[in-house]
User: What shape does this take?
Amino acid sequence: MPTRVISSEASAQLSLNGDSPISEGGWFHIRVRDISSSSSSSSEEAESRVTIPAVLESVQALSFIGFTDRAADQIMYRHSLVSAHREDVDILSFAKGHIRSAKDASLPWENWRDAMDEMGVKDSVQEAIMLPQFESLRLTQSAMFWVLDTISAKYMYLQSIDREVLDYARGPRRSESYVQIESRLSGESRPSSSKPTQPSSSKAAQGRANPQPSQALHLGANDHQVGDGEIELLKGGTQVRLIQAFRTPTDPPNAVINRLQNIYSAIPGDFSPDEQALYLTKQRDVAYQYMDYARERTNEQSQQLLAVGILHIIIPTDLLADHAQIYADEWREFVMHCRLQTEQFPSHLTYLQNTSVIMGPILKANDAM
Assistant: This one.
């Protein structure tokens, strides 16, 4: 059964508030303020209307998250062949499969545009991924990585719209005090004390052995100052993803629930070829750069719908006692073995495979040469 982006209940709530969504050709036209997770929109922008798909399993949804019409038709055709016999079919998995069937590009001299054309990515998404001010960050991963990351974030946003509509339509937006994300949304500027830096100079701390939350682990720096014996680690990105790291009001008060695993990175990673891991930075400028890049890639059609932010995690430095810090040739060799998922690690690097936390600079593709 098709999944409505705005459910009948949400649509009814909007009607009671005098703002029924306008449906046209598989699309909804709706006010920004009813669906936007960004609090930075001006009153004029909030009253303007934007276009979102009516159904998740549709060519309209595939177009919204970043596919060309031709690619959307191909993905929907494959999806329809399977969904005719099974109900538990996720359209996003077909979209990812379509991308992964194409060639990739990761090196500066490779043709990223050709690769993304083969993946069926529309020009506006390609332009956002290729923005020159994010070249250093882009070259830490491949075209396929950034395309998958972008379409996944936008699909996740579509899944969240119904809750956003219900929250707004039922009254003033609830104060989600359990969410502590430092947000710098589309209308705000980088703090004057911050100067852009190249991500290659950052330190990325990666926990490969699932970190267990405890009373000593604080998610969010807004209500907890970094004290002696503590360290603050950061992660920038879309709020719709970062928010998954937090406990929710429905969680049992004393239950130990590791929601950090919801924001683990995909396999392979820089410090792990076969396990998901949590990647964080100690440098605020690097977190801002990841956040800025996420905003440009997910709001590339001038519809500022997806809010972005920075996740703060404050932990006791004792938790980092068992860590390895790698540099120079050893660092470069280890990261490339992880990214390429080589079958056998060099003997002098095997000790890193059993280390729960690894710290090292971010490796750009041309640094590996």
About this structure: Residues 172-189, 191-221 have pLDDT under 50 and may be disordered. The CA atoms of residues 16 and 41 lie 23 Å apart. The longest strand covers residues 230-238.
